[in-house]
Amino acid sequence: MEQSELTGGYIFDIQGFSVHDGPGCRTLIFFKGCPLRCLWCSNPEGIRPYPEPLYKESKCLFDLYCLQACHHQAISVHVGQDNPRIDFEREKCRKCNTYDCVKACLTGALGQGGYFISLTDLYARIERDRLYWGQQGGITLTGGEPFAQPEFAANLLKRCYNALIHTAVETCGEVPWENIEPSLKWLDWIFFDLKHMDEAAHKHLTSSSGHRILENARRLADSFEGRMVFRFPLVPGLNDSDENIRATAGFILSTGRTELNILPVHHLGREKYLLSGQSYKLPGLEMTARDQLITIQNRFTELGVKCYLGSETPF
Ligand code: SF4
Ligand code: SF4
Question: Which of 10, 83, 106, 178 is the most buried (most CB within 10 A)?
């Protein structure tokens, strides 16, 4: 067995039949762990780099079987003014490899967010999905941040690429260049997120200044031989000013690439924040109206960027 067969990594979901993240019908693999803390993140269960319990309070009977089952003293009961609830010190779950709490819970109040998967098992799943892709299709690694697990990402991409499977990655770019570079020769497409061009605003929105992201974007645009499409999560009032649109367009064109996919943010991930013990940071956010989206798309086009809107992408 090759060394790469023995490796694997942490993921939190696999979704088949996606038609928005690369050509044809695709299988998306959601990597666990992300270095950014974007205020609008729609996959909060993908942020921590390790598996964790996901807790649905409405299904909890407070019988405390989970507390008795946990060998890491990660669970406590919180009794406040409202109903009691179970609390988790999820940092302690980093050491866990049993998830006994989930096994002990009989009501479905606990689920496991994320799991280790071997390359062999993951590839078997991909091969199964391949039967349904049709003439086009392939895999897209997303997350979380795929390049936060660089060896796993590179090994998986290599195996698929060598099997003539179309490969794509969606990255936030906030990783060392050394994490990205080994995957490049096994990749056909890269989706690269841009969130804001102003350092202070980027820090406020994501917890990072974005400096390394732009540096990686430039290096990728220069050295990557496949298709590179920038992605812009549009957050009304936070990054949709004309000044930022002009700066974003200017940056894209300065790299020599020309394609941008606008992704209007949505509230679909809101419920998942509670499951993973986090608070949703943009509860009052209004969605961008359709005519405003088209105005922004037209503005990017006017500035020389080939701009695709949301899921109306030609791929
Ligand atoms: S995942 Fe493991 S450490 Fe965390 S609460 Fe459950 S049993 Fe305890
Ligand atoms: S075992 Fe399940 S139902 Fe019982 S207290 Fe824990 S989470 Fe709630």
Answer: 10
